[in-house]
Every structure is written in structure tokens, then in C-alpha cells.
Amino acid sequence: QVQFKESGGGLVQPGGSLRLSCTSSGFTMDYYSIGWFRQAPGKEREGVSSMRGSDGSTYYVDSVKGRFTISKDNAKNTVYLQMNSLKPEDTAVYYCATDYGLGLSLQEWPYASWGQGTQVTVSS
Residue 1 above 90 pLDDT? Predict the structure, then answer.
């Protein structure tokens, strides 16, 4: 069963940076799309960024454009989310998942194989 594992979260001051990692055993990230999502307390899970493994195409929601960068390292079978200029409103649990397809949409369905998430807290 495919399962993703997120790591790299933590507490950071506004304006700071974090790099999240998404890994998986039994699933190679060089073809299907991988998406990063987040869920803040009391809010629904929302898509943040996605990358198509086959060609490296990326997509970002407007709220993170210019601040977040999604990338991958095929040798490490890892997808990253570099987050710069963090704001308190970026505070959330961050998840990665795959849509088992080649889309870049950040609608929650048909993403699956969700990990446990990693907490990102932006606070002074």
C-alpha cells in the first residue's frame, strides 16, 4: 500500500523559511503528479502546489506564488516544498499526496495515499 510521509515542519518566525519533504516507499515520483495541501485549524484542507512528475510542470495557488517552490529529486524519490517569506496565515498541517494521474489541479479529489502531515507554525 502506497503511503506518503511528510517531514520538515516546525516553528518559524514570520518572514522565515522552511523546506518540507515528501517521501514514499513503493511509489516513484518521476511520473504521476504530486500535490501539497494544507489544513489550518477549523478550516478545510486546501491545495497549495502540485508538480507533474513526468515533465516537471508545476502549479501554485495565488496565495503562495512567488514564495513557495515545489521541486523533486528523483534519485532520492523525494518532492520538496520550499517555503519562503512565511506568514502567520501559512500556519497549518501540510500534507502530500498523489492523484495517480497527470493533472495539476489542486482539487482534493482524486488525490489519495495521504500521509500523516507535518505541522508548520508561523509565529513570533
Answer: no
**Does residue 26 have a pLDDT over 90?**
no
Q: E strands, 26-107, where?
A: 33-39, 46-52, 58-60, 68-73, 78-83, 92-98
* Nearest C-alpha neighbor of 21 from the set 3, 35, 6: 6
Amino acid at 64: V
Q: Cell 520550499 sits at which residue?
A: 82
Burial class (CB in 10 A: 0-12, 13-18, 19+), 123: exposed
How long, in residues, is the chain? 124
> Look-up: residue for cell 513503493?
26
Instruction: Give 3's contacts (C-beta < 8 A, 6+ positions apart).
Output: 24, 25, 26, 113, 115
Residue 88 phi, psi (nearest 5): -55, -30
- Does the CA dihedral 48-61-26-112 come out positive or negative? positive
Task: Write the pLDDT tens digit of every residue in 90-117.
Answer: 999 999 999 999 989 999 989 999 999 9
